[in-house]
Design goal:
Helices cover 39% and strands 27% of the residues. The protein has 408 residues and is of the alpha/beta class. A seven-stranded mixed sheet has the order 12-11-10-9-13-14-15, sandwiched between helices. Strand 14 (367-371), helix 14 and strand 15 form a beta-alpha-beta unit. The mean pLDDT is 91.
Length: 408
């Protein structure tokens, strides 16, 4: 080892085809061993780092040839010697916990990045890499209605206090109007296979029972029962039974009309196109009604629908339902059941929902995401999206816009 030299080279300058090839060809000519390499390109500006191992009798010639080649390529090059002890310490740090922090919003500012980076630093973590997942933003005044901005941090180390770190991210998100996600970077994050969605106020921007109640002329009565349930005076199943009873006599054909006019949430079509192309299994697990779930299944290609079946006789709703009510507990059971049927580890599952009855499902899944959720749900769920459409889920999975466009 006494004859060994470790040298770190940093190259920066205007990027053009062939820079990396030309520099690594010199290392190859001298049989140098590349121990680490990383490259980034920001607006045609190259930043390339290579740590290589050679012998003391070759290092001078290598650096001389690299210096001349860098001059020819019109890039800057800097050499830094690395001791064997420093390298061994660096090797020893591998295997430390790794985390992915995702910043998501209509627009991300320097302040947003600074606030998140400060929390990371205060927790004793090191940012290894930063990448932009969304496409390049056009210049112009204001923010486009459906604009998206996403930046991903790859972070290494063990947080001093993970729960406090999570709380700080929630507080920053609420105060600054953007979303922050903290995920452990495990093998399961990279191979999710099943994603389950709530329907009402998640995949669609309405509550179907409210739509039916309005058509039946009992909107106020149904709203009053819903309010009682939210105050905890009656449980979900009892409130569901009472609300459905009020729909007795409504013509069943009304459901088709409502289905065709459902206000679908921003990003559903894009999200489903990508998930299907990537091989995900998808499910709707809803406390709403099967009729509307099946409509969405046909339109967007969901694999499973579990919801509540309204009883129909002679073309009219009877005010009763068929089978067991799909409540919060049942949603979590169904997620586990589908995972078993599809031979998917529970850690490879995702759940997305907005209400308190989604919390058991969000907790059971490997990745639970509160989507435009009530404050209590956001505070309980580990991840949340409140600033953009439901296709923001794709960024939590590490998809880049450049990958997403390939599915079109």
């Amino acid at each position: 080892m006494s004859n060994t030299e470790l040298i770190l080279i940093n190259i920066s300058g205007y990027d053009r085809p062939g820079v990396t090839a030309a520099l690594t060809e010199i290392l190859a000519r001298y049989d140098a061993m590349v121990l680490d390499i990383g490259q980034a390109d920001i607006h045609h500006t190259l930043s390339l780092g290579i740590l290589f191992q050679t012998t003391s009798d070759r290092s001078g010639d290598i650096m001389k040839d690299l210096l001349f080649k860098a001059y020819d390529l019109q890039v800057k090059i800097r050499f830094t010697p690395v001791t064997v002890e420093e390298y061994e310490q660096w090797v020893g740090r591998q295997g430390k916990n790794r985390w992915i922090i995702t910043l998501l919003g209509r627009q991300l500012t320097a302040r947003h990045i600074s606030l998140v980076a400060e929390v990371v630093s205060n927790q004793g973590l090191n940012i290894d890499a930063i990448q932009r997942l969304t496409g390049r933003q056009p210049l112009g005044e204001g923010t486009l209605p459906q604009a998206k901005a996403c930046i991903e941090f790859s972070v290494r180390g063990t947080p001093a206090n993970r729960s406090e770190m999570q709380k700080q991210f929630i507080d920053i998100s609420a105060a600054e109007g953007f979303d922050v996600s903290l995920q452990e970077d495990t093998m399961f994050r990279r191979c999710r296979r099943l994603i389950c969605f709530d329907m009402d106020s998640t995949l669609i921007q309405t509550e179907c029972i409210d739509q039916l109640a309005e058509r039946a002329g009992v909107g106020d009565q149904v709203a009053a029962i819903t309010e009682r349930a939210m105050r905890g005076e009656i449980d979900f199943i009892e409130s569901f039974r009472e609300r459905v009873a009020l729909l007795k006599g409504l013509d069943a054909s009304v459901m088709e009309d409502i289905a065709e006019k459902l206000p679908v949430t921003e990003g559903v079509e894009r999200l489903m196109a990508v998930l299907k192309r990537a091989g995900f299994k998808t499910a709707i697990l809803s406390g709403g009604f099967t009729f509307f779930g099946e409509y969405l299944k046909r339109k967007y290609g969901f694999d499973y629908v579990y919801a509540n079946e309204l009883e129909v006789e002679d073309g009219k709703l009877t005010g009763r339902y068929v089978g067991d009510v799909v409540d919060g507990k049942r949603k979590a059971e169904l997620l586990r059941l589908i995972a078993q049927v599809e031979n998917v580890n529970i850690a490879q599952t995702i759940a997305v929902g907005d209400g308190a009855n989604d919390l058991p499902m969000l907790s059971a899944a490997g990745l639970g995401i509160a989507f435009h959720a009530k404050p209590k749900v956001k505070a309980t769920a580990k991840q949340s999206i409140s600033t953009i459409g439901i296709d923001g889920v794709l960024y939590f999975l590490g998809f880049k816009d450049s990958y997403i466009s390939e599915t079109k």
